[in-house]
Each structure stands twice: as structure tokens, then as C-alpha cells.
Amino acid sequence: MKKFIPAAGLAVYSMAAWADEAAAVAPPPEDVSPMAMIVVILIMVAMIGGFIAFTVLKDRKRDK
Q1: Angle at the Cα of 33 (from 52 to 31), degrees rounded to 5?
Q2: Is the dihedral of CA 17, 22, 34, 47 positive or negative?
Q3: Closest by alpha carbon to 47, among 36, 55, 35?
Q4: Distance CA 58, CA 17 (A)
Q5: Taking the CB of residue 32, how many other CB atoms lie within 10 A of it?
Q6: Between residues 31 and 56, the one the model is more confident about
Q7: What pLDDT score was predicted for residue 15?
Q8: How far apart are the C-alpha atoms of 2 and 49, rounded to whole Å?
Q9: Which tens digit of pLDDT belongs to each residue from 22-54?
Q10: Total-model pTM
Q11: 3-class secondary-structure state, position 51
Q12: Is 29 helix (H, G, I), strand (E, B) or coil?
């Protein structure tokens, strides 16, 4: 454990240096198409609705 703490500190410092290098090389982010966002939102809403329907139906079946 005595060797782990200094090693963890050195790892954190080296990660910061790698992050600076990666930021200089990385291309700027592209814009997301509105259609892709709409599809993702619709899938998420459908999954939430399916989960709610599943739990309600399971609860009704258990009550009988």
C-alpha cells in the first residue's frame, strides 16, 4: 500500500500530460443530425413506456 499511493500520483500526473497531447490532435466534434436525435429520443421513450407497461401488467397479474 505504501508503494501504491506514490504510483497512483505519478499515474494521474502522466494522464494529465497525455490528455493535453490528445486535445491538440483530436479533430473538432461534428454536428449531430436532428434525425438521429429524434430517433434516439423515440427509442428511449418507447423503452421507458415498455418498462412501465411491463411492471403494471406484472403487478396486475400478481394481484389476481
Answers
A1: 120
A2: negative
A3: 55
A4: 53
A5: 9
A6: 56
A7: 75
A8: 51
A9: 556 667 678 888 999 999 999 999 999 999 999
A10: 0.50
A11: helix
A12: coil
